[in-house]
Amino acid sequence: MKVALIQLAYGDDESVLDRTARVAHLVRAQAGHDLVVLPELWPAGGFDYTAWDERAEAVDGPVAQALAAAARDARVTLHGGSIVERAEPVEADGRGLWNTSLVFSPDGELVATYRKIHRFGFGEGEPSLMDAGADLVVLDVPVATGGTVSVGLSTCYDLRFPELYRRLLDRGAEVFVIPAAWPRRRVAHWTLLGQARAVEDQCVVIQCNTAGTHARHEMGGHSQVVDATGKVLAAAGLDEEVLSIDIDTTVTPEWRRTFPVLADRRLS
Ligand SMILES: O=C(O)CCC(=O)C(=O)O
């Protein structure tokens, strides 16, 4: 499975319109990959809390339409990172905004949405401005060499909650895709926890982080792809870059067969 991770850098000066056009261009340049992945909240700004309400949009809004067209032109499955989603109806005590990932098929069809379950901010940011998602999402992603790969979705802070990944595993996930806006000061946790999820769940982990500095927060970069044995197959640095990697999808079932630790679980 050929995968491209676009570790996008942005600051405060680029408009959402300009950034969207730049991202669509970067996605089109990844033709030939099976899956292209973008970071969390790149249109609204991961830590740009004050702009979220104004930049919120529907899952068929202008950013989604630009991503759908880019996926179709490049003929790739596109994990478009996440947007601040505005949707109706709003629950009685709800906020009507979610941190929502969008996945498009190579035909440009929106095939999956995932609303981030664990909100980051310790009372501020996401918990005060957004609602929490409740639904697990696992989808089949087609691979040019034949067949599909079962991909479980999660976002950034979710990575700190291993029980979520066990549940995705139990729904058949072989790969976890994790877009993020993870700060530089805790980037060691980002890489370590990604490797831990790969080892404990015997899954491929694809982590696409943000780079650059926006809203006074320096992002950590260090996107990575880890195979089901825990081996880091590709790793980015601190700045904007595209990681391109051909993942051997036979490794996961072979590793699960030769080291059958999952079969020894006792509490499920
Ligand atoms: O858990 C962390 O250290 C960072 C999480 C985060 O930045 C997020 O979920 O947006």
Automatic annotation (TrEMBL):
Q: State if Magnesium is listed as a keyword.
A: no
Q: Which domain of life is it from?
A: Bacteria
Per UniProt, the keywords (alphabetical) are: Hydrolase
Task: Check the record and name the InterPro entries matching this protein.
Answer: C-N_Hydrolase, C-N_Hydrolase_sf, UPF0012_CS
Give the protein family. Belongs to the carbon-nitrogen hydrolase superfamily. NIT1/NIT2 family.
Organism, as annotated: Terrabacter aerolatus
Protein's UniProt keywords contain Translocase:
no
Q: Which GO terms describe its molecular function?
A: hydrolase activity
CDD domains, sorted = nitrilase_5
Q: Which PANTHER family match?
A: DEAMINATED GLUTATHIONE AMIDASE (PTHR23088:SF27), NITRILASE-RELATED (PTHR23088)
Domain CN hydrolase stretches: 1-249
A Pfam family that the UniProt record links to this protein: CN_hydrolase
The name on file for this protein is Hydrolase
